[in-house]
Amino acid sequence: MATTVVNEYRLNEDNELRLEVSNEDVVIELLNGTAELFGTQLILHKRYTLPAGFRGAIFTYQGAVIEVIGKTDSAYIAQQTPMIIYLNTHVALEALRENAEMQLKQDPNSTVRGPRIMVAGPTDVGKSTLCRILCSYAIRQSRTPIFVDLDIGQSSISIPGTIGALYIEKPADIVDGFDKNSACVFSFGHLSPAVNLLLYKTLITELAKVVKKKCKQQIAANVGGVVINTCGWVKGEGYDCIVHAAEAFEVDVVIVLDHERLFVELQHDLPSFVKILHQPKSGGVESRSREFRALSRRNVIHRYFYGPRNNPYFPHTFEISFDKPIDEQELIVAKFGAEQLPESCLPYGMEPEEHRTKVVRISISNELKNCVLALMPPSVNKVDQTLLEKPVHGFIVITNVDMEQKILSILSPQPYPLPSKIALFSEVTFIDDENV
Ligand code: ADP
Fold first, then answer.
1. Which CATH number characterizes residue 241's domain?
2. 3-class SS at 402?
3. How many structural domains comprise the chain?
4. Which of 88, 144, 219, 228 has the maximum number of C-beta atoms within 10 A of its C-beta?
5. Domain residues for 379?
6. Whose CA is nearest to atom 24 of ligand 1?
7. Residue 2 has pLDDT above 80, yes or no
8. What's a Gene Ontology MF term here (predicted)?
9. Is the bond preceding residue 342 a cis peptide, omega within 30 degrees?
């Protein structure tokens, strides 16, 4: 009979226990002291299950004893971490929040606002982790910041291929992160901004408008400020996207993790009032392989439909016929980006680039099989350019297309009928092997 491996780790102050969970869950428990995982405090003697493949670090400011039950791929105590630098960053942001709060109390019409901070750097330097830590520290001081994720490949707000914003009102769960139910999400439909740069920038501008509106409407959101995670593509056009995002969100602070050239270039290209800081990455962050990324993308979509393990959802599968006249169709699929016309054929006044953001209807075909589609809000009833300004209502997967019988099979969080009939095409796919 296999015996369970139990290890106890004694951490001194400012140490962290770095864990890589293998293909079986691991249970952790704080036996003594205080500790946190990416900014969320662990409750003494509460047992947390870390899922297979989990990577992370349990940090302590004062010292802690942590028990790990189960087999890990790696577990070691690190004495060198950048956590004090990240904590100091939080302290500086908090001072800006206090100042904004004080001025708004004196004059509610003041244009002052909480800090808007953007984290940039290549992939796998801990950008999302730093954003989570900064948001968690803000929450621990009763602030309610807005977290924005522009990383379409590995979004921590919604499914891959999207950008989004989340108004954070409660601490992140140790394993599941922040509650994403009220996220505002725009569908880009591809896994890299390079596929359609103009569209990516357009959606960033739209998301920034939503975030600024929220800050205008709600003092607590304005004071809490905005924490923005970016894509790890930092060269050429990827760099242009970072500059565009900084401008669209009117950021005051940019933290560059682990990339000297990006730091120097941003100092040169962003206005002088933007504070640009160069900070180290944590030695615990390791590069993730292409396969690991693909698997974590799949897991995120699976979780969207089937829920976390401790609180499973039961999605619905149903069929709809598309053998109907146009105005009776139950599902109309649109996409952003039309075929490019030769310049000589462009209508008068149309810019050559504009086809990249043109909203067009597409016909139902086998190409839709396994695609994750973004449903537009129920109020949307026609396919036009305004779809670019609309956050998505939710997602469905086209699990099968029967072109002969003209039937679509659908995986949906909600039962039949679909809550809205217009959906956006996305190249992102999900093979639903639970329903075969
Ligand atoms: P990026 O956003 O730059 O791509 P992430 O923040 O997603 O990087 O971090 C990459 C991986 O490293 C994630 O799996 C994260 O959980 C893990 N990680 C982050 N910080 C640490 C750390 N201090 N120790 C161990 N793993 C970490």
1. 3.40.50.300
2. strand
3. 3
4. 228
5. 315-342+356-424
6. 284
7. no
8. polynucleotide 5'-hydroxyl-kinase activity
9. no
